[in-house]
Amino acid sequence: MKYVEVIAQASSTETILKIAVKQKALDVRLGLEGDDGMRPIRLLVRKDRLQALIDDLQHILGAQPTSRILVMAVEATVPEPEESERERESEAIAAREELVETADRMSRLNLNYFILVLLSTLVAAIGLIYNQVAVIIGGMVIAPLLGPNLALSLSITLGNVRQVRQALVSLAVGVLVPIVVGALIGFFWTGELDSPAISARTNAGLAAATLGLTSGAAAALSLTSGISSALVGVMVSVALLPPATALGLMLGQGEYLTAAGAALLLAIDIVCINLACKAVFFFKGVRPRLGEDQERAKLATVGYALTWVASLAVLLLLNALRQQLLSAP
To answer: Of all helices (H) and strands (E), which one includes residue 29?
Structure first.
């Protein structure tokens, strides 16, 4: 369940109460009208009714610039809800506004994001060089690469141009930092860089595509269902951080053919993660609210999906050609 507090002009009280009845609010509490003519109204609603309630409220409050809609989580309730209500709550997706806020927070490019990417790259590089799986996992745990991929897919789904730009920049930084840092390490490293951990990140194929697709689907499901995304973030980092770092290491060593394999693996994983995210958002019914935004987002979604599918096909073809080149006598 969710608590929705509406702060609107007192003259809108009757209309808001009708919306509360329409959306089957479990409880309605009216606050006192203030000196400014605004009145708080608090509604208790089930999670599966939250999005429709917010849409209806936005429709009538759009002409009130001072109005506010606040959504608050309900941690517990006494008496406990019936089992049927629990099932509806668990199956309901988060409201559009909650998704946007979460994705925006996770994809914001700031000093903390940059430092975490840098630290995770250093840890992953050590793990790759010395073939230490536990160390590689440690790097992936702290890598903040889940947010930009989720935000990119969600913002295109909702037609949010500002968030698309933000997600692209954050994703670019999250990928380029491991490549650049890895290249510097590879250039100055005097020993051999031939560990099995590095070799495993320089060969792409169907397994890489499967990993990317499952990681992307899990990421989108974690966002829409509101469950913890910590372990899902590790899955996404598994697909992105090690191949990006391995790509940098091989570039630094001048092993360009091997680096091409890591680049293909990285590109395939990025494409598959975003393609799977988009598919989950589509089947979960995540849509813009306004009609004009829906048309723009629909066109962007079709183009987005076709671009990723075409890119995946090209990348798999290039990988097949690379494998033939490597196996040729």
So the answer is: strand 27-30
Distances (CA, A) of 145 to 83, 108, 132, 243: 36, 11, 21, 13
User: Residue 174's closest CA among 227, 132, 215, 233?
Assistant: 233
CB contact at 8 A, 273 and 311: no
Q: Where do the domains of the chain lie, and which CATH numbers do they carry? A: 2-91 (3.30.70.120), 96-327 (no CATH)
CA nearest neighbour of 209 among 323, 326, 324, 317? 317
Q: In 3-state terms, the chain is what percent helix, strand and coil (to 5)?
A: 70, 10, 20
Q: Read off the pLDDT band of 226 (50, 70, 90).
A: low
Q: 211 near 269, Cβ under 8 Å?
A: yes
Residues β-bridged to residue 27: 44
Exposure string for 164-176, b = 16+ CB within 10 A, e = fewer: bebbeebbeebbe
Q: Tokens for 120?
A: 């995770």
Q: Output the pTM of the full model.
A: 0.78
C-beta neighbour count of 88 within 10 angstroms: 15
